[in-house]
Design goal:
The complex is a heterodimer of chains A (288) and B (297). Chain A is mainly α and 288 residues long. Helices cover 81% and strands 0% of the residues of chain A. Chain A has two domains: 2-65; 71-287, Orthogonal Bundle (MetI-like fold), CATH 1.10.3720. Chain A contains 13 helices and no strands. The relative contact order of chain A is 0.13. With 297 residues, chain B is mainly α. Chain B has one domain (34-296): Orthogonal Bundle (MetI-like fold). In chain B, 72% of the residues lie in helices and 1% in strands. Chain B has helices spanning 2-33, 53-59, 69-99, 106-114, 121-132, 139-146, 154-157, 159-185, 188-196, 201-212, 214-228, 233-238, 250-259, 264-296; strands spanning 36-37, 48-49. Chain B has a two-stranded antiparallel ribbon with strand order 1-2. In chain B, helix 1 (2-33) crosses helix 14. The longest helix of chain B has 33 residues, at 264-296. The chains are: A mainly alpha (288), B mainly alpha (297). At the A-B interface, helix 1, helix 4, helix 5, helix 6 and helix 7 of A face helix 1, helix 3, helix 4, helix 5 and helix 8 of B.
């Protein structure tokens, strides 16, 4: 008799736990979908015709018409190309500068003890500097040198602002590598350059890639400098989005398709970097 | 040994030089510009040194009935940044707790909620403005009418709350990401022993979990502050700073000074004020962090 009631109690407890779990699951899914809804709706509306998109609706007959229209517009390609130039050039050069710098900060022997940390802190402080602090001189220089109408001016600014982020994040990945490997390598006659590209970079590869992807996302999305330091031929996608309403008017379907093209690459790259993002941010900053 | 030190510097210095030339040097120039009277639209006028007059122009209070615009812009900047940070912290923590549950498919939910963080601010501004906030064609307008209300144009009547909502939408995922990482770093044994000791949910969350993830909280708030205070694109595409200057923040005011008023000197002064404000707030936060750290250890 007693035995059976214990079994029954256990069963009902398990039952309760099961229900609790699924109630919780439904709440979590609902919250997540609600939160993601503006992006989801944008994604859906890109597959509507302009007539379908006037009033909000979720169920409709999807069509590729709007995408065809958006992608046949040559100005869209121009913005896309400009953004890609900035992302590839800016991220690439930031990596070339930032990764060796992070290597020296972690493993190098600079003249004074403690200067490694000083340089590290200097890079971190630079991250705090808001872009408004540099806009005005850069703007006057670029106007004089006509850099506004070339991609190089903006790219230089992006490199200046994103190299510190590379240093910061890669620093946290290099710090995980054991110092002994590099001591052994240098005893074996391995030069610093070889240590960097034969040992350090391959070992911290995933971290470096994530840092690069994160910087790529930041540059892809950057607006303040991109808006103020470019002319019509060099403007990037965020600038295109900001001008959409005045240039193209209130076309919800077109707007949705164009912004999907502008937003989706960043979301996908961002999702890929999320783990490294947390690690880079917390390990560097929690101690400091 | 000597050559290896040379390589060390060869690795480090290019980055230092480029970063200094593109960020620090322009900032020093901005400080110098802020002491000049310099109008871009009047190249015939000489640039003259005016000392702190550009700053004085913003700070000067001539009569108490007419507080200059600068103070409201300063207040709006702090209001927008502060409220967003508070909302992100509170809601972000609660949602991180929710997402810390081990249920099937929770990773998909986490990934979805992270999405808005990676959306460019101009796109999210335009999307919200046309598909959500629009009073006739947006979800807000349609739902309000279906419920029998007359929808008011939120973007022009409540510009600052609208901006705060959008910033929160964009930045809370970042808080969730960092706080969730903290929550998942709490050792399982501790959670188990909490259950055995009969700690209730409220105590468990606020007396045990929250202190344990304090460092993650600080990282999130600090970075959130640094990034939010320089936001510009979202304000431009949603309210355009309006009505009037009611939803300006400092970066937006700098932009208007350069490109509408063409006054380089005053714009530079505002830019310097922005940097100083950022540094003061970061410093205050940092100090409170150190104080808290002492309390806990």
């Amino acid at each position: 008799m007693e035995q059976r009631s214990i079994v029954a109690v256990q069963k009902s407890m398990r039952h309760k736990r099961f229900i609790k779990k699924w109630v919780l699951a439904i709440i979590i899914y609902a919250v997540a979908i609600f939160y993601f809804f503006p992006i989801l709706y944008m994604f859906l509306s890109g597959f509507k015709t302009e007539q379908q998109a006037v009033m909000p609706s979720i169920f409709f007959k999807p069509t590729l018409e709007t995408y065809k229209k958006v992608l046949s517009d040559p100005t869209m390609y121009q913005y896309l190309r400009n953004s890609l130039i900035q992302v590839i050039g800016g991220t690439g050069i930031s990596l070339l500068l930032g990764v060796p710098a992070a290597f020296t900060i972690v493993f190098g022997r600079l003249k004074n003890k403690g200067s490694n940390d000083k340089y590290y802190v200097w890079f971190i402080i630079t991250i705090l500097l808001p872009p408004v602090a540099v806009l005005i001189p850069l703007f006057t220089w670029y106007q004089k040198l006509n850099l506004i109408n070339t991609p190089y001016g903006l790219m230089a600014a992006y490199i200046g602002f994103h190299t510190p982020i590379i240093v910061w994040m890669v620093h946290s990945f290099f710090s995980d590598l054991p110092n002994e490997i590099f001591e052994a390598a240098s005893l074996d006659g391995c030069t610093k350059l070889q240590q960097l590209y034969k040992i350090a970079i391959p070992m911290a590869r995933t971290g470096i890639i994530s840092a690069a992807l994160l910087v790529a996302v930041f540059i892809w999305n950057e607006f303040f400098l991109g808006f103020n330091l470019t002319g019509n031929p060099t403007a990037t996608l965020p600038v295109f989005m900001s001008r959409f309403r005045e240039q193209q008017g209130q076309f919800v379907a077109q707007l949705s398709a164009s912004s999907t093209i502008a937003v989706l690459p960043a979301i996908i790259l961002g999702w890929m970097t999320q783990k490294a993002l947390v690690k880079g941010l917390t390990s560097g900053a929690v101690k400091g | 040994m000597k050559t290896s030190r040379k390589t060390d510097y060869a690795f480090l210095l290019p980055a230092v030089v480029v970063v200094a030339v593109m960020t620090q040097v322009p900032f020093v120039l901005t400080i110098i510009f802020s002491t000049l009277r310099w109008n871009l639209s009047r190249p015939d006028l000489p640039r003259i040194f005016v000392n702190i007059q550009n700053y004085w122009h913003f700070f000067k209070i001539e009569s108490l009935s007419e507080i200059p615009e600068f103070y409201s812009i300063l207040w709006q900047t702090i209001l927008i940044t502060g409220t967003t940070l508070i909302l992100c912290s509170v809601l972000g923590f609660l949602l991180a707790l929710l997402l810390d549950n081990d249920i099937p498919g929770v990773n998909i939910a986490r990934t979805l909620m992270l999405g808005p963080f990676f959306v460019m601010s101009t796109a999210s501004g335009v999307i919200w403005k046309t598909t959500i906030f629009n009073t006739t064609f947006g979800w807000y307008g349609v739902i309000a009418k279906a419920l029998g209300f007359t929808p008011v144009d939120l973007v022009s009547y409540f510009p600052i709350p609208v901006i705060i909502v959008l910033f929160t939408w964009q930045w809370m995922p970042f808080f969730i990401l960092v706080l969730l990482a903290g929550l998942q770093g709490i050792p399982q044994e501790l959670v188990d022993s909490m259950k055995i000791d009969g700690v209730n949910w409220f105590q468990g969350v606020f007396k045990i979990k929250l202190p344990l993830i304090m460092n993650h909280f600080r990282v999130a708030v600090m970075l959130g502050l640094v990034f939010l205070i320089k936001e510009f694109g979202l304000i431009l595409v949603t309210t355009a700073g309006g009505p009037g200057t009611r939803s300006y923040n400092l970066p937006y005011a700098v932009y208007m000074q350069v490109f509408s008023a063409n006054t380089i000197g005053r714009a530079s002064a505002l830019a310097v004020i922005t940097v100083v404000l950022t540094l003061i707030l970061v410093n205050l936060l940092y100090r409170s962090i150190i104080k808290q750290n002492k309390k806990f250890s």
